[in-house]
Specification:
The chain has 613 residues and is α/β, with parallel strands linked by helices. Helices cover 63% and strands 9% of the residues. It folds into 2 domains: 317 residues, ABC transporter type 1, transmembrane domain (ABC transporter transmembrane region fold, Up-down Bundle); 186 residues, Rossmann fold (3-Layer(aba) Sandwich). The protein is elongated. Bound molecules: adenosine-5'-triphosphate (ATP) and magnesium ion (MG).
């Protein structure tokens, strides 16, 4: 299946899944005991009227006509019915408490686990599928739990008690019923299997549909669809899923209906048969009329539970299949995990070092980084340059510990990132990436994401430092303007400045910056350059450089090619060496950056200042 990672747990046996599922109910032991008691009580109470009927018909109605006894029996019958109805309310409540409790825990665990999963998982899985699993599947589990478990219990108890009563009334008649029951086993199992399969298919199709929707109905998705005029194509794809879902739902429903029809027919005919068979026995003087009446009622009540029990295997199997889908996610290896005694650095200086780092995204692909060794002193500005696909972005991912290298290590202040707490790394390294991600909320909230406890004033200062003041002043709602899905209501440059403001607020000792490749208008270009220069001051900065001003200002330039670090040094040194950097300089940096206002001097000044910090 698409979403699976290469590292898969050995396919667990049904039994292990069952045990793990049971373990989920551990905390609810007492509630479950209560539930069982309630179920037993209701099952017995529901069967009581049949016995009372026997008494009413046999001893109260005929001949002498004991009115007092009829009244008594009726009151008992009424009480049983009312008590059972009340218990049913309690049953529903307890049931929901357990089912919802398990679901809440499962959903939270899933969410927590998903957040710990490596970026790799998210690059390989469609968001819609993840969403489907967290919402639809977990809901399915809740249904399975509350439905399957209670039904099974109450049906078994009903069946056992009813058959017991039948035998105590008249064993020969009871034998007839008991012999007839197994005839149901085969069709029941068959239908159950079919339904189980259809339900699984339904869940898969739902995941498929939600993945498709998520992809095409997001802002970037819809833009792509519109650019290529693919509305009809997407409609067709959707239509197919939609129709499939309809077909599956109808088939599943009809399988149940046909089966219910048969059960219903049998259930209605059975009492007739009982009267016929029992009638003869009554005439023969072997049975009382009351027993026949009670029997007729009991037979009707036995088929439904029996059918469910016969199907329990398949119901349980399809519920387990749902649990399995969830356990599959819970079992995905975290990979990038925190060591037990991981170190916390209170105030990292920001010394970054790559030592013989080799990294590939997967076992099959060639390494994206090969034996890279580089050192960045605290406060330095380092520029990463190189042709497309050289591994620049990858290097910044490793620095943020999105992935761990297969060989070598990335260190911060001399500590391997793997020895530090995840929180230390998150606090120490900030990033402003090229495709800025914003949440669908206000500008202020998006900036505050950099430091959640920042005051209103601090958020404003950060926004100002990122050069957002003018824009905010122009907006009618100012800082409270909602930026829209992924920030699509802002321009590219504005978005990037929001990201810069976020980083300013976070104030990390190490900053990763991915410069925009697209040429911006020169005023905006200067504004962004100024705000990033301000941001870079006094901290270690790793810039994926696309602009001349940046490389000229950099304290050290690292030139990557095909995942290898091929050259390093300052702009002038590298230029005079006449290697890859020199040719990159001519191709990448020179033509775009000959505008007069692109004087590198101011940045050079800040860059030099930073290196001294
Ligand atoms: N998630 C991923 N899974 C597998 N391979 C990847 C992944 N991301 C990047 N790669 C591959 O790793 C190599 C390095 O990619 P990287 O993004 O680091 O290049 P880059 O130097 O940033 O290029 P650009 O200048 O175009 O942004 C490329 O060959 C790319 O195809
Ligand atoms: Mg890149």
């Amino acid at each position: 299946m698409r979403w699976r990672l290469q590292t898969q747990r050995p396919s667990g046996s049904k039994r292990r899944i069952f045990q793990r599922t049971l373990a989920l109910f551990g905390p609810y032991r007492y509630r479950i005991t209560l539930l069982i008691l309630i179920i037993a009580a209701t099952a017995v109470l529901d069967l009581l009227p049949a016995l009372l009927l026997k008494d009413i018909v046999d001893s109260a109605i005929p001949g002498t006509g004991d009115r007092g006894r009829i009244d008594q029996l009726f009151i008992v019958l009424l009480s049983a019915v009312i008590a059972s109805a009340l218990l049913n309310v309690l049953l529903g409540y307890t049931n929901q408490m357990i089912g919802q409790g398990v679901m809440v825990r499962l959903r939270s665990r899933l969410h927590e686990h998903l957040q710990r999963l490596p970026v790799r998982f998210f690059t390989q899985t469609r968001t819609g599928e993840i969403l489907s699993r967290v919402s639809t599947d977990v809901n399915g589990v809740q249904n399975a739990v509350t439905g399957t478990f209670t039904d099974f219990l109450s049906n078994s108890i009903t069946l056992i008690v009813a058959i017991g009563i039948m035998f105590s009334l008249e064993w020969r008649l009871a034998m007839v019923a008991v012999v007839l029951l197994p005839l149901w086993v085969y069709p029941t199992i068959k239908v159950g299997r079919l339904q189980g399969r259809l339900i699984r298919e339904w869940h898969e199709e739902t995941a498929e549909m939600s993945a498709h929707l998520e992809e095409t109905l997001s802002v970037s998705g819809i833009m792509l669809v519109k650019t290529f005029g693919r509305q009809e194509h997407e409609s067709d794809r959707f239509e197919r899923s939609n129709r499939n879902l309809r077909a599956l739902a109808i088939r599943q429903m009809m399988a149940g209906r046909w089966f219910n029809l048969a059960t219903g027919l049998f259930g209605s005919l059975a009492p007739g048969a009982v009267y016929w068979f029992g009638g003869h026995a009554v005439i023969g003087g072997e049975l009382s009329i009351g027993s026949v009446v009670a029997f007729a009622v009991l037979t009707q009540r036995v088929f439904q539970p029996f059918a469910s029990i016969a199907r329990i295997n398949t119901t349980v199997l399809s519920s387990l299949a749902l649990f399995e889908r969830i356990f599959d996610y819970l079992d995905l290896p975290v990979e990038v995990d925190e060591r037990p005694n991981a170190i916390t650095l209170a105030h990292p200086r920001g010394a970054v070092r790559f030592e013989g780092v080799t990294f590939s995204y997967s076992a099959q692909t060639t390494p994206a980084l090969r034996d890279v060794t580089l050192t960045i002193e605290p406060g330095q500005m380092a520029a990463l340059v190189g042709p497309s696909g050289a591994g620049k972005t990858t290097a910044t991912y490793l620095l943020q510990r999105f992935y761990d290298p297969q060989q070598g290590s990335v260190t911060l202040d001399g500590h391997d990132l793997r020895d530090l707490t995840l929180n230390t790394i998150a606090q120490a390294v900030g990033a402003v990436m090229q495709d800025t991600y914003l949440f669908h909320t206000t500008l202020a909230e998006n900036i505050r994401y950099g430091r959640l406890d920042a005051t209103e004033a601090e958020v404003r200062t950060a926004a100002a430092a990122a050069g957002l003041s003018d824009m905010i002043a122009r907006l009618p709602e100012g800082m409270d303007t909602v930026v829209g899905e992924r920030g699509y209501r802002l321009s590219g440059g504005e978005k990037q400045r929001v990201a810069i403001a976020r980083a300013v607020l976070k104030d990390p000792p190490v900053l990763v910056l991915d410069e925009a490749t697209a040429s911006l208008d020169s005023r905006l270009e200067r504004e962004i350059r100024e705000s990033t220069a301000r941001l870079a001051r006094g901290r270690t900065t790793v810039v994926i450089a696309h602009r001349l001003s940046t490389v000229v200002a950099a304290d050290v330039i690292f030139v990557f090619d095909h995942g290898e670090l091929v050259e390093q040094g300052r702009h002038d040194e590298l230029l005079s060496r006449g290697g890859l950097y020199a040719s990159l300089y001519r191709e990448q940096f020179l033509p775009d950056d000959d505008a007069p206002e692109d004087s590198p001097l101011e940045i050079a000044a800040t860059g030099a200042g930073a290196s001294g910090a």
